[in-house]
Amino acid sequence: MGTVRELLDLGIARLRASGSESARLDAELLLAHPDAPVGDGAAARFEATLDRRASSEPVAYIRGVKEFHGLAFGVDARALIPRPETERLVELAELEVVRRLVGAPRPPGSPPLRVLDVGVGSGVVAVTLAVLLRRRGMADEAELAATDVSDEALELAKENAVAQAVGDRIDFRTADLIPGDETRKWDLVLANLPYVRSETLPGLPKATAFEPVLALDGGPDGLRVIARLLNQLPGALARDGVALLEIGGDQGQAMRDLAAERLPDWSCELEKDLGGLPRVAVLRHSSH
Ligand SMILES: C[S@@+](CC[C@H](N)C(=O)[O-])C[C@H]1O[C@@H](n2cnc3c(N)ncnc32)[C@H](O)[C@@H]1O
Known about the structure:
Elements: H1 4-17, H2 23-31, H3 40-54, H4 59-63, E1 65-68, E2 71-74, H5 86-103, E3 113-118, H6 124-135, E4 142-148, H7 151-163, E5 170-174, E6 186-191, H8 224-236, E7 237-246, H9 252-262, E8 266-272, E9 278-285
Helix pairs in contact: 1-2, 1-3, 2-3, 5-6
S-adenosylmethionine binds near residues 147 and 192.
């Protein structure tokens, strides 16, 4: 029986040889606990994970888990692996909900805020927001819903909601963007929709090929799906509602132009990420 360290060294050498730029980190994540003894079964399982990583499968899919905003989310090929950039969208959503619930006094008996996450994927946006609102004791003051066109992604999102004990707090629905049958409008619409330009997809890191194309492909200009969402906003958002839409770091001006064309009476502000790149478009009717 060898040690984890011996196996780790083998794994690092193997992943380096396969061209990995993060061989040590990947091998450590796949194995962990360097000084624990390992039996033959564990060594064989590690070998199998190395095979998967050496063929470029993302570490997050092999481990089946990815950390997002301090929470552990189950991930697999049913949905996009959550990206750290999306934490900005969740932070802004939390601030917006708190501002509305605490910043401005609401008359007693006001209905809960209605918040919709469009393109829920693994569930990171809606589920993290539900957890953050529960921590603040505000769970009953906001009604959360989430949509996706992918039933597989919705299944994963529900599993993650249950794992974070907010399964009964989010209304998950299969829908193309915003469901059309609403009687009351949404106060807050959040979306991290696909925004990669189709022609750049083949040039992305090999690991990206393991993720659903539906989660990445934003059409010829990258903004095709987001443009359809903009068309829905005037009919779906409350008059003083806000939409927070994640965009690519190089899409700030294109997003402004698109918003000016589709929503001429609306403002479009761009919130930056930690790297200083425009990351979230904030859209609201100019009268608010
Ligand atoms: C970039 S992924 C983001 C997933 C998740 N919100 C996150 O931040 O990790 C985009 C998601 O939008 C979904 N999607 C694509 N087109 C859609 C549409 N027309 N209506 C609803 N969801 C859509 C995809 O299935 C995918 O789950």
